[in-house]
Amino acid sequence: MKISVIGCGYLGAVHAAAMAQLGHQVVGFDIDSYRISELAAGRAPFYEPQLPEILASAGAKGGLAFSTDPAVVAGAKVHFVAVGTPQRAGGYAADLSAVDAAIDALIPHLAPGDLVVGKSTVPVGTAAALAARVAAGCPGAMLAWNPEFLREGFAVADTITPDRIVYGLPADPAQAASAKALLDEVYATALAAGTPLVVTDYQTAELVKVAANAFLATKISFINAMAEISESVGADVTQLADAIGHDARIGRRFLNAGVGFGGGCLPKDIRAFTARAEELGRGESIAFLKEIDAINLRRRQRVVDLVTELLDGQVFHKKVAVLGLSFKPESDDIRDSPALDVAVQLKGLGADVVAVDPKAIPNSMRTHPQLAYTEEVETALSGAHAVVLVTEWKVFRDLDPAWVAGLVERQLIVDGRNCLDPDAWRAAGWTYRGMGRG
Ligand SMILES: NC(=O)c1ccc[n+]([C@@H]2O[C@H](COP(=O)([O-])OP(=O)(O)OC[C@H]3O[C@@H](n4cnc5c(N)ncnc54)[C@H](O)[C@@H]3O)[C@@H](O)[C@H]2O)c1
Ligand SMILES: O=c1ccn([C@@H]2O[C@H](COP(=O)(O)OP(=O)(O)O[C@H]3O[C@H](CO)[C@@H](O)[C@H](O)[C@H]3O)[C@@H](O)[C@H]2O)c(=O)[nH]1
């Protein structure tokens, strides 16, 4: 099937390449000329494991093309909208201007029977409004909502073998049947493999997405709240998480306490959901999400406070090695990154911050040129008065405490991701502080 993807960022570029890998003819359109020129040359414009491989293999098969010209989408039967929906400047609501612009650019190239498929994360009610615009702009064209659940770092596998697929279909039965048939063809491989499919209306599909992210954020802030309590009484939140996680109704995943959640999704999605609920007069139903956000942001401050405490309040002109910049390992994404936030706060207190990250330095340098960066872990650690680990890249998890001890000025470490073995570090002479670990 001929497919177009509008918006080729962390979601859209992977979706385009994965759909081509599955045998579809795919064209990608984006207004970002750097991203498009990289993708057109078969290169990934950001770090995502497996993306270079599928770009190369799908490109070699000839089923994948990219352009900054919206006319490239003409002739495709299914058009995925995957543009950004960031937090609006100065507010909590989602900024839908890119979605509106994408629909405007798409409409002149639609033909009757075409299906526009929303993938971006949007406030509930958006799909119905866009469907009306699509129908007015091209009578006979349809819209479906098909939220995306991929995780960065696992985006290719999550796209090719998702754990579920959700279709939000038009209310009109004939349109719903046509839309479903087209989506079934797009996802034939995953459906044949038995991937669970939920077929529903627009508003449920939109809500599924934000509810899933709200639940994940709640799980993380729940365990971070337990970390705060643990800190008061000398308990160990990692053991607490193991113990409650053995209950299958709770589960151990997403119970890792630490510096909290960041990225281009969880933080802005819970805020946009809150704003939308308030617009609907239902703010009280999810008022707890404000607390989830507040707990999350407090953990960033806690890491900064622990570093300050270890340095006896004397942060000024002390060298602090910050291990990690991306919001999670296996990604170069620094959107709302707790790690970068900690680095900036420490710098603001006068520390001589030297940050190291395997992939996120170029992005960080662009947005935060005031920080000092190094590609070498050894350079970051040499002469450091304190070490703070804020993104649990394998290279940091595997550090040998005795080797690091030989590099630093003082053996003080804050493990902002609870990913190191406290006993091993303490045995090597370190003052170790985790998050909610006594
Ligand atoms: N990144 C993820 O893991 C992920 C997962 C699920 C859902 N989502 C949702 O998907 C959407 C995209 O997220 P992302 O992380 O890929 O963002 P992103 O910023 O990496 O990519 C968005 C892309 O859209 C492009 N764009 C903006 N306006 C455009 C226009 N008018 N026409 C064509 N292209 C345009 C931008 O240039 C950019 O390349 C968001 O709604 C996000 O919440 C993201
Ligand atoms: O136990 C945990 C698990 C995660 N995190 C943090 O939470 C953030 C988000 O992690 P993750 O959810 O793995 O990354 P994303 O790639 O942002 O994926 C989320 O956001 C996407 C965009 O909406 C969704 O598609 C995914 O399903 C959803 O997991 C990161 O900063 C993690 O460090 C924790 O602090 N503790």
TrEMBL record:
Gene3D superfamilies: Cytochrome c1, transmembrane anchor, C-terminal (1.20.5.100), NAD(P)-binding Rossmann-like Domain (3.40.50.720)
Keywords: NAD, Oxidoreductase
Chain positions recorded as substrate binding sites: F149, L150, R151, E152, K209, F254, L255, N256, A257, G258, G262, K328
Ranges of residues in domain UDP-glucose/GDP-mannose dehydrogenase C-terminal: 321-422
GO BP annotation list: polysaccharide biosynthetic process; UDP-glucuronate biosynthetic process
Transmembrane segments: none
Signal sequence, renumbered to the chain: none
GO molecular function terms listed in the Swiss-Prot or TrEMBL record: NAD binding; UDP-glucose 6-dehydrogenase activity
Stored SUPFAM superfamilies: 6-phosphogluconate dehydrogenase C-terminal domain-like (SSF48179), NAD(P)-binding Rossmann-fold domains (SSF51735), UDP-glucose/GDP-mannose dehydrogenase C-terminal domain (SSF52413)
EC number: 1.1.1.22
Catalytic residues as annotated in Swiss-Prot or TrEMBL: C265 (nucleophile)
Reaction it catalyzes: UDP-alpha-D-glucose + 2 NAD(+) + H2O = UDP-alpha-D-glucuronate + 2 NADH + 3 H(+)
Keyword Oxidoreductase: yes
Chain sites annotated for binding NAD(+): D30, R35, T85, T121, E152, K268, R335
Domain of life: Bacteria
InterPro entries associated with the record: 6-PGluconate_DH-like_C_sf (IPR008927), NAD(P)-bd_dom_sf (IPR036291), UDP-Glc/GDP-Man (IPR017476), UDP-Glc/GDP-Man_DH_C (IPR014027), UDP-Glc/GDP-Man_DH_C_sf (IPR036220), UDP-Glc/GDP-Man_DH_dimer (IPR014026), UDP-Glc/GDP-Man_DH_N (IPR001732), UDPglc_DH_bac (IPR028357)
Pathway assignment: Nucleotide-sugar biosynthesis; UDP-alpha-D-glucuronate biosynthesis; UDP-alpha-D-glucuronate from UDP-alpha-D-glucose: step 1/1
Pfam family, one: UDPG_MGDP_dh
Family assignment from sequence similarity: Belongs to the UDP-glucose/GDP-mannose dehydrogenase family.
NCBIfam families tied to this protein: NDP-sugDHase
Official protein name in the record: UDP-glucose 6-dehydrogenase
